[in-house]
Write a structure and sequence with these properties.
By secondary structure, this protein is of the alpha/beta class. The chain is built from 22 helices and 16 strands. The strands form four sheets. It has a five-stranded mixed β-sheet with strand order 2-1-3-4-5, with helices on one face. A five-stranded mixed β-sheet has the order 13-12-16-14-15. It has a four-stranded parallel β-sheet with strand order 8-7-6-9, with helices on both faces. Helix 6 crosses helix 7 and helix 9 packs across helix 10. Bound molecules: flavin mononucleotide and iron/sulfur cluster (SF4).
Length: about 500
């Protein structure tokens, strides 16, 4: 009997040795004369257990992890028995997976990402087929009715965006998938591209059908070589099968960006796609009216597009039934930084921040108390423990001058120095600025210098007032959110952790 083993080929799993584990499994099977079939899957997103391998048994798949090549002979000699120290049991039974509601990531880690047969047998193409049977206008109504908001950061209703493009008259329209994923601690786009690329292809095809676009681009940063390879192979397979190309009246091309944070901003991304240096364009015109090559363009985040198939397949109501307030459906929350159980947790909106980082994330990896959590990437606010009751919801976070962004949560323990984190935000803005407007280009540099003075204890109060003034200018004088949101990390650090901005004086007072 051939034994089926599942080993992830996600970049996260490969980084900690998944390829070597797969090779060791093959070599050991050969040595023992056993027949094995190794299926390379995506990751289930339990990164602290990677490489997590699974074995097919009559009772379903059983997981073991984290596995090293050295564990392989012992594992095979024990015939993957339940008594082995790396035995984890059924993956679905692991608390981290059991508590999730997997809609967008339902197939991730289960299927071979490059098997069209796997994709179809796990419900693939049902969304596109239903969209075609409903027609373009009703497809857009479904997406609107689902309450789906853009998962790239701004949370704009996806259905409204699609309708704007559909209603704009033009000879050509485009679908652009924003897979630049520049936010700190985020990897949902990468995981979906490496673990379930046909889902993104199906989502883009649905968007194309809905708005009348015949061509799509996936914009991926060069730091994601595995995602680029997997998407390119998946597109070629879909083309060979007639699911993309002339018969399907939709084709897709992958474009690789150099990896500037600002190229994730939609207009800058369009400049980059057109072959220019990525610089932010003034809006209006909106990309929905005048986007790529001057044509109406849907620019959506990879997860927004990858959510469309489930919405169409199971209906808007099923998706809208999940969530909290105006934040409908599920969000792939990515736990990162100093956290014990780092991984991707897909759940309906509404979980409290404390539940997410302390219960689900298991607290810090260092074992020290959590002091701060930065939500929503490098431009997101730092939240202290006293805000851990905040529900995960676009409006609740905005009310606290924060962001959900692309769903990243970066955890810090009590050794963090928040004055240095505030300086880091200004440095990030200076490094990543596209240079088009003065507050962002120059203000960020002056901000860093001022923060250095505060850290040294020079004229603290006057310099803090200067930082606040500068943040107001950044917020209201910047053309895009790179400069406009830099005040979030800076001001939240000052507001919630004021003692870190007064260290030299406090140290002197303590010495007296
Ligand atoms: C500086 C900056 C960087 C951004 N980076 C990304 C990114 O990496 N990925 C992304 O999807 N959206 C990013 N955005 C948001 C995009 O401009 C845009 O709102 C989004 O791609 C729209 O898709 P959605 O409606 O599906 O979220 C960024 C915005 C700014 C201002
Ligand atoms: S805020 Fe910064 S990144 Fe945005 S347009 Fe202005 S200079 Fe460019």
């Amino acid at each position: 009997m051939t034994r089926r083993l599942f080993v992830p080929r996600d970049a996260g799993a490969r980084a900690v040795g998944a390829d070597r584990v797969a090779a060791a499994l093959e070599a050991e099977a050969r040595r023992l004369g056993q027949a094995v079939e190794i299926v390379r899957t995506g990751s289930r997103g339990l990164f602290w257990l990677e490489p997590m391998i699974e074995v097919e048994t009559p009772a379903g798949r059983i997981a073991f992890g984290p596995v090293t090549p050295r564990d392989v002979p012992e594992l095979m000699a024990a015939d993957f028995s339940a008594g082995h120290r790396l035995h984890l049991g059924r993956p679905e039974g692991l608390p981290f997976l059991k508590r999730q509601t997997r809609i967008t990531f339902a197939r991730c880690g289960i299927v071979d990402p490059l098997s069209l047969a796997d994709y179809r047998s796990h419900g693939g193409w049902r969304g596109l087929e239903r969209a075609k049977s409903l027609g373009a206008a009703k497809t857009i109504e479904e997406v609107t009715g689902s309450g789906l908001r853009g998962r790239g950061g701004a949370g704009f209703p996806t259905g409204v965006k699609w309708k704007t493009v559909a209603d704009t008259v033009a000879d050509r329209k485009y679908i652009v998938c924003n897979a630049d994923e520049g936010d700190s601690g985020t990897y949902a786009d990468r995981m979906i591209m490496e673990g379930d690329p046909f889902l993104l292809i199906e989502g883009m095809a649905i968007a194309g059908f809905a708005v009348g676009a015949t061509r799509g681009y996936v914009y991926i940063r060069s730091e994601y070589p595995d995602a680029v390879r997997t998407m390119e192979r998946a597109i070629a397979l879909a083309e060979a099968d007639g699911l993309l190309g002339p018969d399907a009246k939709f084709d897709i091309e992958v474009r690789v960006g150099a990896g500037a944070y600002v190229c994730g901003e939609e207009t800058s991304l369009l400049d980059s796609l057109e072959g220019r240096r990525g610089q932010v364009r003034a809006k209006p015109p909106l990309p929905a009216h005048k986007g790529l090559f001057g044509k109406p363009t849907v620019v959506n985040n990879a997860i927004s597009l990858a959510t469309a198939p489930a919405i169409l397949a199971d209906g808007a109501d099923a998706y809208a039934a999940l969530g909290f307030g105006r934040s409908r459906g599920t969000m792939p929350i990515q736990l990162a930084g100093n956290v014990r159980y780092a991984g991707l947790f897909e759940a309906p909106f509404g979980l409290s921040l404390g539940e997410l980082v302390e219960e689900i994330g298991g607290g810090t990896r260092s074992g020290r108390p959590i002091r701060a959590v930065q939500a929503g990437g490098p431009l997101g606010a730092y939240f202290p423990r006293r805000l851990f009751d905040t529900p995960y919801d676009y409006e609740a976070y905005a009310e606290l001058d924060g962001l959900i962004g692309h769903g990243g949560l970066v955890v810090f323990d009590d050794t963090v120095d928040m004055a240095h984190q505030a300086r880091f935000a200004l440095e990030f803005c200076a490094l990543e600025s596209c240079g088009k407007c003065t507050p962002c280009r120059l203000g960020s540099v002056r901000g860093m210098e001022t923060m250095d003075r505060i850290i040294r204890g020079e004229r603290r109060d006057a310099n803090l007032a200067l930082i606040e003034d500068l943040c107001q200018t950044l917020k209201f004088g910047s053309l895009c959110a790179l400069g406009g949101f830099t005040p979030y990390p800076v001001m939240s650090a000052i507001k919630h952790f004021p003692e870190d901005f007064d260290r030299p004086r406090l140290a002197a007072a303590a010495a007296d």
